[in-house]
Amino acid sequence: MREMVMAWYTGNAVYDGLLAFGFLYALGIFISARFGTPAYGGRFGARSKGLKLGSKAGWVLMELPALIAFPIFFFMGDRSGDTVALVLGGVWMFHYTNRALVNPLLMRVHPGSPPSFNINVVVIGWAVLVLHSYLNGSFISEHAAHLTEDWLNDPRFYIGAVVYAIGFTVNVWSDAILRKLRAPDPDPDAPRYKVPHGGLFKYVSCPQYLGELTSFLGFSIMTWGLGGIYILAVSAANLVPRARVTHRWYLRTFPDEYPKNRKAIIPFLY
Hints:
Blueprint: H1 13-32, H2 42-45, E1 52-53, H3 55-63, H4 65-75, H5 83-106, E2 117-118, H6 119-143, H7 155-179, H8 207-223, H9 226-253
Antiparallel strand pairs: 1-2
């Protein structure tokens, strides 16, 4: 009978040590978020100091390690050729192909927008994603004894897949709504920011963040491993405070137009 609780230890000192470090780092992100949000993207990064990249280049460069490091760690595992490992690895590559390539390249940047992606954030993002790639790639193909052929019939796999699909759909749908606020060839004289409507924007200011966190939760359930919980914790520590700041910015920037019943990231609650 498989364990119903995720195992905290794999027995591999390197893996378990890095996992512990990852959770301590997530705690550090949560604490530091009380003093400001990372300088990337639009209004968050435009006023920051230091070397900065454009939004498209910044996103691609920061997320790309997930498409490079994960396969390296994954195929080092003895069970990388197993069906269940390949399925879970495929979910990872699908997710980060969208996150690192598709979505950034589809972005519609307002003409004349200054570079807003601080290079320091990119470097920190590399470290986070390389650790993320190791903790999940190595776990799936090497350390997870429960990921046998039978796992594809386990309720946790199906529940995780459904949760992941819902989160991914919300993420992509919300990004599409935000993208369409600007024309394919934006007019430099048009307003840079507008109030988004439709989808889960009816309930929250940042459904794209909610979708991303939900997809990570689903992946964690699918793998039944703490490597997924690590990136969920890091992302929540970053995105929840970021959503709160975004929500307040909308209310301040559009005092008469912005719906007062919206929450920041969790419908009806927060």
